[in-house]
Specification:
heteropentamer; A mainly alpha (297); B alpha/beta (249); C mainly alpha (296); D alpha/beta (239); E alpha/beta (365); A: 297 residues; mainly alpha; two-stranded antiparallel ribbon; 12 helices; globular; E: alpha/beta; Rossmann fold; 2 domains; seven-stranded mixed β-sheet; 19% strand; nucleotide-binding (chain B); ATP-binding cassette domain-containing protein (chain B); ATP binding (chain B); ATP hydrolysis activity (chain B)
């Protein structure tokens, strides 16, 4: 049971940062930006490339995240702002297309194989009968710290107040003297940074391949939609639910039912669990479990 | 006695805690053009939305052509012959005026039959002075032209009752009298109209009867000419400004 | 040489059918389906399963039809209360769920190794079998085109276009939006499934890799490059994309590029074409003819 | 303080909605813009505020040409306040946060001072400082949005239908508050209204628009006494 | 419409202009991208070395031998498309391919249908046997290797093992065959876990396996997957129990030394008695073998060249009968003697037991 909780939490940590970034940016720019998941991969790859160039790991990750933040802004200005003028659905297609172009770039730049940061890996130690590794604790802690920092920014600073103001009512925010373009740009930047950090955390715990973006896409969306797109911290809750569903489906032993000792559902059904949950949510609660401030038209 | 075409009984509509319609009952007979009036926020548009099925009612019943349509979906209501227009009609930009007009009547010659543009389309285009823009994208029309197109399109559906939401707002003065003519003609051929409108002149020209709403209740049901002399109507429209020193006539 | 050309044209025809299907949904009705490949999959696995369990080949299209109708209805039902972008994500999920099940339901689908050895169409006509297949595909493409053209030029087609842009107006005029959506989804799904059956018997192999999400985006690229809501345009788009895809390896040979190039170039082509066209020419090479042939 | 010259404007590539409108408003003056639905009232206010760029003509404020200055810069650098029609509070923010947003750019002490003053002025808000704005009633929201604009002490205030959706009782409270602001702070106020007679009761001057042009321009008192005005709303029409 | 015709015309001109035929050309479809890219690259190296060796000795039929490589991208339909190009555009004499069985089988079936000789250089699934008459395997199939592995595992005293294999034709073949042999020899498979290749984590699968408390873990994995799986097994502390890898060279190069201490396994023996190939490889690429498959690809190429030489032309029927003839006679390459049975499958091949020492694999008897 404890193991189950830990597995769920760590899987949730995989998803949470990217899902929060997705939700945050959705609250201002009303389309689901699929490319955000690829930004996470960019973050991880750039971080690893920097490390290979001799940059110590902490500055490498930070530098990579800032870079991805910048890239996110560039893509937003050059591609998404223009496509959004046509239609949010067109912008969604554009972000899918951008994801493909980015994957192609990864393939040429980094090759098809999974890559890792070169960090010391130690075997797991047992805590409460549960195996955890140093890296898990470290990256899990960092994930929580980043989430808290983002929450503080959003709810405790004037800048955060402006962000929330723009997301609830951009017209009024402008009328209050808020430069909505600047705030939006900043949130896009932050979403890039957070997604990149999320990618780096993933890479620190395991490895990152060019397919990671594709593999993470739907679970991350499931988490964000479950939490109510646009509600940044609903996404954390969504991530936990998705993680629990995925963990549960692979931990159930169907052996006794079929008269054998151990029969598991293939773990590759785990993503199907999260997608099915997503579809079910959309069928019965089309706007997610926490209805966000964003009213959809 | 002719039977009522539309009968609304005890209609109520609440959004959250605020009651927009409290207890509204009225009816429309065939051949009538009924104006639905009232100051801003009196619930006219909401009434239209509930009757046409675009909003669910909170209480009350609506019958149309002898059928209970209180909970019917929009398309079923339209199929019975109640067709509406919108206050701010937005038109598609990848369909021409002619196509939109054609689309007003469904299943013309069968669902999957090729579209044929018969002479009746040209007649309507002429009547509404849209012939010169027939091949243009519908979204490129001016606000007034869109209004006219939406009325023309609704007429194409041969409705028994045509519900219009502020048909004259933004429509050029010279076209208003045309509109009156077209609508009269349509009613003369057996139709009926329910018109939400601000323009009193238009109402006076067109309507056979007026219903005035205020804060979700009917405060008058009379001939257009009687409006000015109805103290409740004057009060609802002019409010306390009168006491404050205005209206010194 | 000409065999290869026949091959590329044959596959282009199949993708042309798929592009028509997507165009019917996204182009004319505004249904942004990112799970089109699942509809195609109904056809592919319909043919595959029939072969795997030794049933008569003719049952393949029948099974495909049943699966496709169910898939179309389910996706339409899912779209009833969702906005366009949510529905897009939902369709993508459905396609991925279908692929995951195809990969893991080994007893039924043959799992990751797929189903191989499906009978090749016209294999008895060798050496003219390739040409015969091409002729069949071209005819079916033509039929699909006729169906689509007829549909969008009918009264029903006006309803589709109205729903695409002004659903409120469509409702006020009495169009039953849910029913039109379901009808379009079912027709499009069946068209895509026909393409799937043809492809299965052309490749003579059925596997979960056929259902990968990038395949859907390839078809999107075809529709966008050709001209969304233009039936001839999307067929042209299908041919253009297929030819580009097919000739990527030649470019690689010619310039002696590394082999990663092929995979990357294919991704880059579909993604880049979509992005480039959306940004620079969103109406595609052959824009929609607003008003059809009746307005000048 | 505001001078609009021969404004023409419209949305996207649509037709002109304003067909050459000129308007002025001075210090300590409350000017109201009236007219039937679709006549271009709100568009005019949006063009003056800077949401919409004029296609021709210009807007001057404090004597400077500000035709192309976007709204947020006007608010920050030209002492302009703007209250949109509906949806004019940040629903997900608390009352206090709404006001603090209005006070952006001010130092702590000034913010605190003005904040307290507003709380004293509008007791309805004082009791609900920690509540989310979405929990307020329509009238309270209107007051809050007014207070949010006022905390920055603007010299020009643009109001888009402050009476929209208000009960008659609340409506008077809001209009009284507006008139009070003009009198006590000497502000220049431009107000778009549907409730013509209520607006004329508090305004100094009025512009009545019809199809994107000024049909009548007169002192409010005269208009109120004008049979043409009565006709416009109860069976007349301004051609 | 006019534009479309123009596009078509332009592309067909392009198509006829490109291929240049002068040499003796054979085709190779390999996974040069995707999860098996390292294996594919190693195969390519083996083929390159063979081509160099052949052309140094005067080529085939007096002409230089040329191999056109096509990427399968690890996707069956791409592999078939690639083969189609090789067959109908490049007019190759025969096609070598692919790496994983799930792709080799449909690829082979396509080639059989076209009447083109197919040489399988790597896929060991039992299903390969059924591809068809003109398909030949230059590698022994699973039934041989898994029996060897099952025996080896039992000999080491591990009675209850958890089996992990990738969910594709090869993995399913290994899992089934190993399970059958292992049970026959008296062992017990506690659970068989089929994982999807290319994931970013295998923790779930590993934990499933662990919960059955086996004596040892028997697994097979492709390059990058294997590396990640070993790392996570290490992190989870599962390496307290022994790990045994079937076809260990597939992932050895992708697994850092620290995560595979004590790992043992088996693989095909690719250096038989002849060490000259090993030396040539190391000289050319500056590192030791990345997998067993370069040797097999190398031998496949030598075998192909020899049959074309014997056939006296690149005429397909002639090449086919030459393959049958040479297969029956036997041909010795760097992986030992290649002799084919009646189905065209290699009858025997040497295996070796290996263990990890640092980063390298050494023999472990």
């Amino acid at each position: 049971m404890v193991q189950f909780i830990f597995d769920t939490l760590f899987r949730a940590a995989d998803l949470a940062l990217i899902a929060v970034a997705l939700s945050a940016v959705y609250s201002l720019i009303r389309f689901p930006n699929v490319a955000l998941v690829q930004y996470a991969v960019v973050g991880a790859f750039v971080g690893m490339a920097l490390q290979q160039q001799g940059v110590p790991i902490v500055p490498a990750v930070l530098l990579a995240s800032l870079l991805v933040g910048g890239i996110a802004q560039v893509f937003n200005a050059v591609i998404f702002q223009r496509l959004l003028r046509l239609d949010p659905a067109i912008a969604l297609i554009g972000s899918l297309a951008l994801s493909m172009v980015l994957s192609a770039g990864f393939l040429l730049g980094f090759g098809p194989a999974a890559q890792r940061f070169s960090v010391q890996v130690a075997p797991a130690t047992r805590v409460f009968g549960v195996r955890v590794t140093e890296m898990q604790v470290l990256t899990g802690g960092l994930t929580v710290a980043i989430l808290i920092a983002f929450a503080l920014l959003l709810f405790r600073t004037p800048l955060g107040r402006e962000m929330r103001a723009v997301s609830t009512n951009p017209v009024l925010a402008a009328a209050t003297g808020v430069n909505t373009a600047r705030v939006t740009g900043l949130v896009v930047f932050l979403s890039g940074v957070i997604a990149a950090l999320g990618g780096a955390m993933l890479a620190l715990r395991g490895s990152v391949s060019i397919d990671m973006g594709t593999n993470m896409l739907l679970p991350v969306f499931a988490a964000a939609i479950l939490g109510g797109l646009g509600n940044a911290f609903g996404a954390v809750f969504g991530a936990i639910v998705i993680a629990a569903a995925e963990t549960l489906i692979t931990n159930l032993n169907f052996g006794p039912i079929v008269g054998q000792d151990h029969v598991f559902l293939p773990a590759s059904y785990a993503p199907a669990a999260s997608f099915a949950l997503l579809v079910a949510v959309l069928l019965f609660r089309p706007r997610g479990i926490f209805v966000s401030e964003v009213t959809r038209v | 006695m002719t039977t009522e075409l539309l009968a609304v009984r005890g209609l109520a509509k609440a959004f959250g805690l605020s009651n927009v319609l409290e207890d509204v009952s009225f009816s429309v007979m065939p051949g009538e053009i009924v104006g639905l009036l009232g100051p801003n926020g009196s619930g006219k548009s909401t009434a239209l939305n509930v009757i046409s099925g675009f909003l669910p009612r909170s209480a009350g019943t609506i019958t149309f052509a002898g059928r209970d349509i209180s909970d019917a979906p929009v398309h079923a209501i339209t199929d019975l012959g109640l067709v509406r227009t919108f206050q701010l009609p937005s038109m598609p930009h990848r369909m021409t005026v002619r196509e939109v007009l054609k689309a007003g009547k469904r299943d013309d010659g069968g669902r999957f039959a090729p579209v044929a543009y018969g002479p009746e389309i040209d007649v309507l285009l002429q009547e509404f002075r849209l012939a010169h823009v027939a091949g243009h994208a519908a979204s490129a029309l001016s606000g007034g032209q869109k209004k006219l197109l939406s009325v023309a399109t609704a007429l194409r559906a041969n409705p028994k009752l045509l519900c219009l939401d502020e048909p004259t707002a933004g429509v050029h003065v010279s076209l208003r009298s045309d509109l009156v003519g077209v609508l009269r003609n349509y009613v003369a051929q057996g139709g009926a109209c329910l018109v939400v409108e601000h323009d009193m002149l238009f109402i006076r020209d067109l309507c056979t009867r007026c219903i005035v709403l205020d804060r979700g209740n009917i405060i008058a049901d009379c001939l257009p000419g009687e409006l000015e002399n109805n103290p409740r109507v004057v009060e609802a429209y002019l409010g306390k400004a009168i006491e404050k020193g205005g209206m010194a006539q | 040489m000409s065999d290869f050309l026949i091959h590329v044209i044959s596959v282009s025809c199949i993708y042309g059918i798929l592009a028509l299907s997507l165009n019917l949904q996204a182009g004319f009705t505004g249904l942004m389906n990112f799970g089109l490949i699942a509809m195609f999959g109904c056809g592919v696995y319909g043919a595959g399963l029939v072969h795997r369990f030794g049933l008569p080949v003719a049952l393949g299209p029948a099974l495909a039809l049943i699966l496709a109708v169910l898939m179309g209805l389910f996706l339409a039902r899912l779209g009833r209360r969702l906005s366009t972008d949510y529905w897009g994500i939902a369709t993508l999920s459905i396609a991925e769920i279908a692929r995951i099940f195809a990969t893991n339901l080994e007893p039924l689908t043959g799992g990751a190794q797929g189903i191989s050895g499906l009978p090749l169409l016209f294999s008895g006509l060798r050496p003219w079998d390739g040409a015969a297949r091409l002729a069949l595909f071209a005819v079916i493409l033509g039929v699909a085109w006729l169906i689509c053209e007829r549909l969008v030029r009918s009264n029903f087609g006006l309803g589709m276009k109205l729903i695409r842009e002004e659903p409120q107006l469509a409702r006020a005029l009495g169009y039953d939006i849910d029913r039109i959506r379901s009808t379009v989804m079912v027709i499009a799904s069946v068209i895509a499934a026909v393409a799937g059956v043809l492809y299965a018997h052309y490749l003579s192999f059925v596997g979960p890799e056929l259902l990968l999400a990038p395949e859907t985006f390839l078809i999107w690229a075809m529709v966008i490059i050709g001209g969304i809501a233009n039936n001839r345009g999307v067929i042209a788009g299908a041919f253009a994309m297929q030819f580009m895809m097919a000739y990527v390896p030649f470019v690689k040979d010619y310039f002696a590029l590394p082999s990663d190039f092929v995979a990357a170039a294919r991704l880059m082509l579909s993604g880049g074409v979509i992005l480039g066209f959306l940004l620079l020419r969103p109406q595609g090479i052959f824009p929609e003819r607003v008003g059809g042939r009746h307005d000048h | 303080m505001i001078e609009a010259q021969d404004l023409r404007a419209g949305y996207g590539d649509g037709a002109d909605i304003l067909n050459g409108i000129s308007l002025t408003a001075g210090r300590k003056e409350l000017v109201t813009i009236l007219g039937p639905n679709g006549c271009g009232k709100s568009t005019l206010l949006k063009t003056i505020a800077g949401y919409l760029k004029p296609r021709s003509g210009g807007v001057k404020m404090h004597g400077k040409d500000v035709s192309t200055v976007p709204i947020h810069e006007k608010v920050r650098h030209h002492r302009v306040g703007y209250v949109p029609q509906t949806d004019n509070v940040f629903r997900s923010l608390t009352v206090a946060e709404n006001l603090r947003l209005g006070a952006r750019g001010l130092d702590r002490a000034t913010t605190a001072r003005r904040y307290d003053a507003l709380m004293e002025q509008y007791p309805v808000l004082a009791s609900k400082q920690g509540r989310k704005a979405s929990a307020l009633s329509g009238g309270e929201r209107q007051i809050l949005s007014l207070a949010r604009a006022l905390i920055a002490e603007p010299e020009i205030l643009l109001l888009d239908e402050p009476s929209a959706g208000l009960s008659p009782l609340m409506l008077h409270e809001v209009f009284d508050a507006i008139a009070g602001i003009r009198d006590s702070q000497g502000m220049c106020i431009v107000m778009v209204e549907q409730n013509a007679f209520e607006a004329l009761g508090v305004a100094d001057r009025a512009y009545v628009l019809s199809l994107g042009q000024v049909a009548i321009h007169a002192p409010a008192r005269d208009l109120l006494a004008d049979p043409a005005m009565r006709a416009l709303y109860l069976g007349g029409h301004v051609a | 419409m006019k534009k479309m015709i123009r596009v078509l015309a332009a592309t067909s001109v392009l198509a006829t202009a490109l291929p240049a035929q002068a040499d003796v050309v054979i085709g190779a479809v390999l996974p040069l991208s995707g999860v098996n890219a390292n294996g594919g690259e190693d195969q390519r190296r083996g083929i390159e070395l063979a081509v160099a060796q052949i052309n140094e000795a005067g080529g085939v039929l007096g002409e230089p031998l040329k191999v056109i490589y096509e990427d399968s991208g690890n996707v069956p339909q791409r592999a078939i498309d690639a083969a189609r190009k090789l067959v109908s555009v490049d007019g190759v004499a025969l096609v070598i391919g692919e790496y994983s069985s799930g792709i080799t089988i449909p690829l082979g079936q396509y080639l059989v249908a076209e009447g083109v000789p197919h040489l399988n250089p790597a896929s060991t699934s039992g299903l390969v046997r059924g591809i068809g008459a003109t398909s030949f395997s230059m590698v022994g199939l699973d039934n041989v290797s898994t029996e060897f592995a099952a025996k080896d595992v039992l000999d080491r005293g591990w009675k209850r093992v958890a089996v992990l294999a990738m969910n594709n034709a090869f993995g399913q073949g290994v899992a089934n065959e190993f399970g059958a042999h292992f049970a026959q020899l008296g062992g017990e498979v506690t659970t068989t876990i089929m994982y999807t290749s290319g994931q970013t984590t295998y923790r779930r699968e590993l934990q499933q396996a662990e919960s059955t408390e086996p004596d040892a873990y028997v697994f097979t994995a492709y390059g990058a997957d294997g590396g990640l799986m070993m790392q996570e097994a290490y992190e989870l502390g599962l390496q307290e129990d022994p790990w045994y890898s079937i076809l260990i060279t597939m992932h050895n190069a992708d697994t850092p030394a620290e995560f595979k201490t004590g790992l043992i396994g088996m693989d095909v023996d690719y250096t038989a008695d002849d060490t000259s190939y090993k030396a040539a490889y190391e000289e050319a690429y500056g590192q030791s073998f990345q997998s067993a498959w370069s040797g097999y690809a190398h031998d496949t190429t030598l075998f192909a060249a020899e049959t074309i030489e014997r056939a006296g032309s690149t005429d397909r029927p002639a090449v086919l009968s030459a393959i049958a003839e040479l297969g029956a006679e036997g041909f010795t390459g760097v992986t030992g003697e290649i002799k084919l049975d009646a189905d065209g499958q290699r009858m025997w091949q040497p295996y070796q037991k290996l263990k990890v020492e640092g980063d390298a694999l050494v023999s472990h008897e």
